[in-house]
């Protein structure tokens, strides 16, 4: 039976690893949604932008080189050999933090009292702006991302179990797990973490004890920026840094539907379920209906969930009080 | 002194409810319609007709459809591309299965089919609020594109996977295929826009339109006055899908002539139409049309100025376009959620008082 | 408008009050561990003005929400016009002839005063989608008929000047008036008002009280209102229900209720054992 088929387990593990990646992106969403009630459509583009910036720093690219050349005729595409990966990572993180500040000042603050649908559409606009700026700054061609993570199939696993699992995916899973643990520790045990939870619970109450909404939003978006950077690096190392990275944001929606929009463990479990579900469905049922089902399976699964449990596995039940 | 607003008193509620209460507006409107309908089609050159007017008319219809759902009823949909595909493929199957069928029936049929498919996706998701419809419409978008790629019956088992519009006519005049004349395709699409815009305008000014807006503004209060939320949202979704289906049918059979699902009906299409209604004006008929004009003309404008005049490479023009549109979305949502249509109204108000500030 | 039966009587100022139009029997409503309403029973007679009073948190709004259909009580029955009412959705109850206003104003912020009040006519408008799309003919005539009714209400409430103003821009007192207009537009058999005078000054309260009385006198509409201002309650209510901590602690005419020791204790805050 299929449980003894090593192929099945390979598919499952591959799905779990992919699921971890989805969970990583979904995490960024949950953080922002919890703290500000905004569904940040731009989360995927943030990951793309972060990865582009990282590669740009690593390879010594001059930002906006193509634009400068076209408009001013300046030919200056590289300022040198690039920086070490560690410095590039730190600098990229700084860029994401600065970007978070900009977003809060320019987009979020003016829209502070608007309803969710307006904010959601604003983040769609933001996604487009970031995508265009990212392309303009670093170019739209596919880039290779190398942060020194081990690549190739895991020989250990191959020898012991006959399964073909990418080392890169394992590293991604490890990194993701570490990140999640760090985030949960931060949220439970630090002053800032407590403040974030307070804001997530009740904006007005948080304001009245002196927590500045703007600062909170900046912190949350910076953390999401960090998560986006990690996600961007992991995805980028796997499949190259390109536009399709931003479409992962769309996949996060079904993850959140399954896990609940406001739950961190939900994002993880939802991500894993989607990851495994996609791969297993495609492997077993895909061939019967033409393949390429990974494009839509996650959404259909989410739709089914909508019918029976709209708040997801761990989300809060929506109670309306009049 | 030319634009007289004063002195036009209404003596009946019927007059009070007119679409153009100011005489100047009414005259200007009908004059423009005359020019658009009777003058332009016979003087426009092929290029302008094909790359500006046809997409403008077709996208206006789609924008009106999406505005009904999102602008008037407050439900976000990201599935416009997929639903246009339903319209297109329904047209294709109708044209190829019933060769004698008049194009008017083909297009209306496409609209009806799309409305049915829309309801199918709408029923599970409209019972709950928030972003859930966005997810369901995303599901629809990706699933439908996949369906039209894989289900060979939809493209008549052709090896290329592409659908091509055969030559068909409307009341004897050829409107699809290589031998259709520009003025014929122009007038065909314009006629659809004119008629269906008028119908939509009627729908939004009566109690059905008000029930949609009530749902959008406060669905709990809407229930108090007797609105069944599911029925109202479903009706908005069905009618919206109908319009988008018509647009999809015209898009394929009259404008493109040939289509392949991943290129022509991708999620980019869904974003395009959404941006049209945000920039043009959520909850405004004229806004839908202005928004469509904007999004259709912008690439043309950028191409002629940035590439043609300034000599910039095309990819920079493309990126600049994306940045501009994204920024405009954010700008309009912050400053004026009712888009260009509302900016125009505010401008008129300011002009009324000018030179006084208030 | 309202049926009169044998058990009706005429008040000193000439209004006719009939038998029960609504009665709630043994209503218990719980949210998780919190009991909002506990075994409450009272009735509302046709044509009267019934006040529901009590300290904050007593469960008054929850009571209205049960009458409205927003909340379904775990126990108890609601009888409307002498018939047991099955669990219905709020919009179905609207069609039965129940209209309401809210404590925090539930107007449609994106629409004008006129449009808001027109929405109140929703249960009376029947033209379908096809008729609406064509407009000329049935749909237009229906719209004009209903517009005439709405204009009567606009005259009655003296809000002609703000007809076209977006309600979001109106001051609080006017918004409350528009909301009343929307409820009246439905020509309800039972009108539920949730703190209609909240946040008003003396003049505005007088105006609003006058409107409520006029509605009751001219149209015979039964009114149930939640109100904190004792002066208003004493002046306009025929009978009063007093609630505290989810229970009923008083039921009678304003004079009876005012002299009840239990009610006085509740308001003055004697400690509860």
Please provide a brief summary of the model.
The complex is a heterotrimer of chains A (about 325), B (about 350) and C (about 270). Chain A is built from 14 helices and no strands.
Describe the protein:
The complex is a heterotrimer of chains A (322), B (358) and C (273). Chain A is mostly helical and 322 residues long. In chain A, 70% of the residues lie in helices and 0% in strands. Chain A has 14 helices and no strands. Chain A has helices at residues 6-36, 43-58, 65-72, 85-108, 116-138, 155-161, 167-189, 191-201, 203-208, 213-239, 248-259, 264-284, 286-289, 297-308. Chain A is globular and about 60 Å long. With 358 residues, chain B is an all-alpha fold. Chain B is built from 14 helices and four strands. Chain B has helices at residues 13-16, 23-43, 46-72, 80-97, 103-125, 132-150, 182-205, 207-224, 229-256, 261-264, 267-280, 285-309, 314-335, 339-353, and strands spanning 163-164, 169-170, 173-174, 258-259. In chain B, helix 3 crosses helix 12, helix 5 (103-125) packs antiparallel against helix 9 and helix 12 (285-309) runs antiparallel to helix 13 (314-335). With 273 residues, chain C is α/β, with parallel strands linked by helices. Chain C is 37% helix and 24% strand. Chain C contains ten helices and twelve strands. Chain C has helices at residues 60-68, 90-96, 113-119, 129-134, 138-157, 172-185, 202-219, 230-236, 254-258, 261-268; strands at residues 9-10, 16-17, 20-31, 34-45, 49-53, 75-80, 83-84, 98-100, 190-194, 222-226, 239-244, 247-252. In chain C, strands 8-9-10-5-11-12 form a six-stranded mixed beta sheet, with helices on both faces. In chain C, strands 4-3-6-7 form a four-stranded antiparallel beta sheet, with helices on one face. In chain C, helix 5 packs across helix 6. Classes of the chains: A mainly alpha (322), B mainly alpha (358), C alpha/beta (273).
């Amino acid at each position: 039976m299929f449980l003894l088929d090593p192929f099945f387990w390979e598919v499952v593990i591959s799905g779990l690893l992919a699921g971890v990646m989805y969970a990583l992106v979904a995490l960024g969403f949950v953080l922002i949604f919890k703290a500000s009630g905004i569904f940040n459509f731009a989360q995927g583009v943030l990951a793309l932008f972060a990865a582009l910036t990282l590669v740009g720093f690593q390879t010594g690219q001059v930002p906006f080189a193509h634009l400068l050349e076209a408009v001013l005729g300046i030919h200056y595409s590289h300022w040198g050999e690039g920086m070490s990966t560690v410095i590039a990572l730190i600098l990229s993180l700084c860029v994401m933090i600065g970007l978070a500040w900009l977003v809060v000042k320019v987009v979020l603050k003016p829209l502070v009292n608007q309803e969710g649908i307006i904010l959601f559409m604003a983040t769609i606009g933001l996604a487009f702006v970031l995508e265009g700026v990212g392309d303009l700054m670093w170019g739209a061609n596919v880039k290779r991302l190398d942060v020194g993570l081990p690549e190739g199939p895991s020989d250990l696993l191959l020898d012991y179990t006959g399964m073909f699992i990418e080392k890169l995916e394992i590293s991604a899973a490890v990194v993701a797990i570490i990140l999640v643990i760090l985030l949960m520790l931060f949220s439970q045990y630090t002053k800032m973490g407590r403040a974030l939870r307070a804001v997530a619970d009740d904006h007005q109450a948080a304001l009245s004890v002196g927590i500045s909404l703007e600062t909170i939003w900046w912190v949350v978006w910076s953390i999401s920026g960090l998560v986006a950077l990690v996600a961007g690096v992991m995805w980028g190392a796997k499949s190259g840094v390109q536009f399709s990275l931003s479409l992962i944001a769309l996949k996060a929606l079904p993850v959140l539907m399954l896990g609940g929009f406001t739950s961190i463990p939900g994002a993880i479990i939802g991500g894993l379920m989607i990851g495994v579900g996609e791969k297993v469905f495609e492997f077993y049922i895909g061939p019967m209906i033409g393949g390429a089902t990974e494009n839509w399976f996650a959404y259909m699964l989410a739709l089914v969930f909508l019918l029976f449990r709209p708040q997801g596995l761990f989300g809060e039940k929506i109670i309306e009080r009049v | 002194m030319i634009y007289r607003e004063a002195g036009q008193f209404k003596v009946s509620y019927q007059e009070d409810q007119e679409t153009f209460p100011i005489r100047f507006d009414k005259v200007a409107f009908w004059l423009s319609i005359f020019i658009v309908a009777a003058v332009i089609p016979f003087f426009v050159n092929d290029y302008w007709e094909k790359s500006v007017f046809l997409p403008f008319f077709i996208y206006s219809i789609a924008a009106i459809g999406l505005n009904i759902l999102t602008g008037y009823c407050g439900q976000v949909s990201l599935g416009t591309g997929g639903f246009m595909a339903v319209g297109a493929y329904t047209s294709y199957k109708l044209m190829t299965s019933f060769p004698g069928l008049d194009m008017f029936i083909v297009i209306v049929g496409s609209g009806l089919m799309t409305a049915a498919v829309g309801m199918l996706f709408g029923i599970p998701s409209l019972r709950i609020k928030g972003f859930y419809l966005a997810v369901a419409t995303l599901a629809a978008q990706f699933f439908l594109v996949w369906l039209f790629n894989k289900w060979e019956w939809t493209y008549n088992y052709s090896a290329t996977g592409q659908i091509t519009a055969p030559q068909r006519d409307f009341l004897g005049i050829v409107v699809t295929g290589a031998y259709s004349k520009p003025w014929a395709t122009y007038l065909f699409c314009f006629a659809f826009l004119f008629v269906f815009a008028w119908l939509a305008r009627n729908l939004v000014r009566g109690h059905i339109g008000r029930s949609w807006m009530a749902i959008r503004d406060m669905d709990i209060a809407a229930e108090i006055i007797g609105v069944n939320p599911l029925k109202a949202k479903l009706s908005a979704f069905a009618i919206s899908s109908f319009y988008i289906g018509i647009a999809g049918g015209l898009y394929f059979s009259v404008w493109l002539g040939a289509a392949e699902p991943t290129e022509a009906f991708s999620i980019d299409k869904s974003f395009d139409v959404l941006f049209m209604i945000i920039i043009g004006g959520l909850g405004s008929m004229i806004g839908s049309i202005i928004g469509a004009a904007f999004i259709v003309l912008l690439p043309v404008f950028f191409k002629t100025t940035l590439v043609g005049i300034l000599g910039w490479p095309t990819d920079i023009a493309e990126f600049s376009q994306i940045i501009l549109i994204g920024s405009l979305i954010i700008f309009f949502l912050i400053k004026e959620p009712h888009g260009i249509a509302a900016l125009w109204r505010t401008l008129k108000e300011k002009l009324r008082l000018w030179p006084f500030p208030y | 408008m309202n049926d009169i039966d044998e058990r009706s009587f005429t008040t000193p100022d000439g209004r006719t009050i009939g038998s029960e139009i609504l009665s709630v029997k043994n209503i218990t409503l719980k949210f998780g561990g919190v009991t909002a309403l506990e075994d409450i029973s009272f009735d509302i007679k046709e044509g009267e003005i019934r006040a529901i009073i009590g300290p904050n948190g007593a469960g008054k709004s929850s009571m209205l929400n049960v009458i409205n259909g927003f909340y379904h009580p775990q126990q108890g029955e609601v009888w409307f016009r002498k018939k047991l009412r099955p669990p219905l959705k709020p919009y179905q109850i609207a069609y039965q002839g129940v209209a309401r206003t809210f404590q925090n104003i539930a107007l449609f912020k994106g629409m004008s005063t006129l449009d808001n009040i027109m929405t109140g006519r929703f249960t009376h408008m029947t033209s379908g989608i096809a008729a609406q799309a064509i407009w000329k003919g049935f749909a237009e005539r229906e719209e004009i008929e209903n517009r005439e009714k709405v204009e009567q209400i606009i005259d009655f409430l003296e809000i002609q000047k703000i007809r076209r103003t977006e309600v979001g821009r109106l001051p609080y007192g006017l918004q409350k008036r528009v909301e009343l207009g929307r409820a009246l537009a439905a020509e309800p058999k039972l009108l539920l008002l949730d703190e209609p005078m909240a946040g008003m000054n003396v003049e505005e309260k007088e105006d609003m009280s006058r409107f409520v009385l006029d509605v009751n006198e001219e149209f015979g509409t039964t009114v149930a209102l939640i109100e904190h201002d004792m002066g208003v309650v004493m002046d306009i209510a025929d009978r009063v229900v007093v609630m505290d901590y989810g229970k009923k602690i008083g039921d009678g005419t304003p004079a009876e209720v005012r002299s009840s020791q239990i009610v006085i204790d509740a308001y003055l805050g004697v400690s509860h054992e």
